[in-house]
Amino acid sequence: MQQTITLIGSGNVAWQLGQALQKAGHRVEAVYSRTLKNAEALANLLPGCIATDKPDFTQSKSSFFLIAVNDQALQSVADQLNLPANSIVAHTSGSMPMTVLERFPKHGVFYPLQTFTKTKQVDLSEVYFGIEASGKEVYKQLFQLAFTLSRKVQSMSSAQRKVIHIAAVFACNFTNHLFSISKQILEKEQLDFELLKPLVKETVEKAFLLGPDQAQTGPAIRGDEKIIQQHLQYLTDKPDLQNLYRLLSENIRKQL
Amino acid sequence: MQQTITLIGSGNVAWQLGQALQKAGHRVEAVYSRTLKNAEALANLLPGCIATDKPDFTQSKSSFFLIAVNDQALQSVADQLNLPANSIVAHTSGSMPMTVLERFPKHGVFYPLQTFTKTKQVDLSEVYFGIEASGKEVYKQLFQLAFTLSRKVQSMSSAQRKVIHIAAVFACNFTNHLFSISKQILEKEQLDFELLKPLVKETVEKAFLLGPDQAQTGPAIRGDEKIIQQHLQYLTDKPDLQNLYRLLSENIRKQL
Q: With an 8 Å Cβ cutoff, is B27 touching chain A?
């Protein structure tokens, strides 16, 4: 069913969500931003959509207000909104509790489990959506809206979202940092990080196919002290990397 | 040009290499293993290929002998081989120097930069091959052979292979360990690791597209102490994970 939706925010998440909702056949009625020009940039991509910096939506036709602003701004933006009586308001944050919206009778969370950049189109149909709501009817409506974007929609409590965020810090943010280290090691010897791309992709595929515990390889899990000592010696002038190498290797050994 | 090749070893690397060489139009003449039954298992997949546990190849027609055995066994296996006078022998190891083969007049390294499992077919055409050789003519021959499997063939010294191995420990082995941790955190709350798959895949794509330094996101790079403290508190009963979270976050901060 076609829905009429207003986006509150014009950052990376709003950018991707707005275009995906429109492609899915919904009407994005308006984009709100405290900076009008930012709202306009996104509204211009969505036929028939208006841009506004006024938080008074009492005359709006939208049934859904999706808030996609950063965590620091979420509470203050939500506090300024005036919404039509029967509308549903949901935020899209992984780390903020649903309660920041509790002054609205129908509220919830509409959380796409993905990392977004404006410049890189994301296929939302592959993305998990975590839904939480103030009541059964609101849950059903948010679930159905998400289901028009992806088949991977599921219930997710505020506590679960917090745990997912911690898990994602390890699996994504920290992983990316290991890529930075790896690149730095290679470039010191005029080698291109691109060399590791097939290896990294295969590592990811194996981890999800076999499970990461089964897929673990390398000197630490083999207990190959000779190679470990060679590597630590190579890193002598990088004590931070030595510490990290040592700690991660010890943790892998404990996994046995 | 079709080459005649003998594989020394019948493990994961030999398994994938044998099949790929045959698909590329070469003739795999023989598979050697100290355990005949292992050689037979692979030889049976390759039409016209024989299995042997005798290291005397003085009567062999092969121009290439590719040694794919584990690092610990490499020297002793190489020491037992008797090869035809004009043949080229190369090992496939990422961490062993070329010099383990120096008693053979024509020797080198034929290193596929990938992680291999028997049960999971790998597309070798996407894999980088690192070539090192005892002389120009041998280099050319090994390069051309690799080029029939992949367009990504390049010169790689023993020193460079060692550095690539260290970089791969960070980008692959340690990354996989972070996936294990992430899975463990999720499962404690009855959440499926699969939830993070689209996020992890996007993280990898972004790291190679934008470079990992540009792609870094998360509480550490934002300096979001509130979230970092919440996460550390959640990990109170897992001191190993707390230490790792702290060290990785500090290192990310230093990157700024």
A: no
* Domains, chain A, with CATH or none: 4-156 (3.40.50.720), 162-253 (1.10.1040.20)
pLDDT in tens, A148-202: 999 999 999 999 999 999 999 999 999 999 999 999 999 999 999 999 999 999 9
Chain B residues 49-108 with CB within 8 Å of chain A: 95
User: Please, is B230 exposed, middle or buried when counting C-beta atoms within 10 Å of its C-beta (0-12, 13-18, 19+)?
Assistant: middle
DSSP B45-90: TSTT-EEE---B-TT---SEEEE---HHHHHHHHHH-B--TT-EEE
Mutate: best of A13, A93, A164, A174, partner B, most B CBs <10 A: A174
pLDDT tens digit sequence for B86-136: 999 999 999 899 999 999 999 999 999 998 877 778 889 989 999 999 999
Distances (CA, A) of B55 to A209, A231, B32, B41, B78: 37, 33, 7, 18, 9
This model of the complex carries an ipTM of 0.88
Are residues B186 and A197, on separate chains, in Cβ contact within 8 Å?
Answer: no
Indicate the pTM of the whole model. Answer: 0.88
Contact residues, chain B, for A159 at CB < 8 Å: 189
Binary contact (A251, B245; C-beta < 8 A) = no
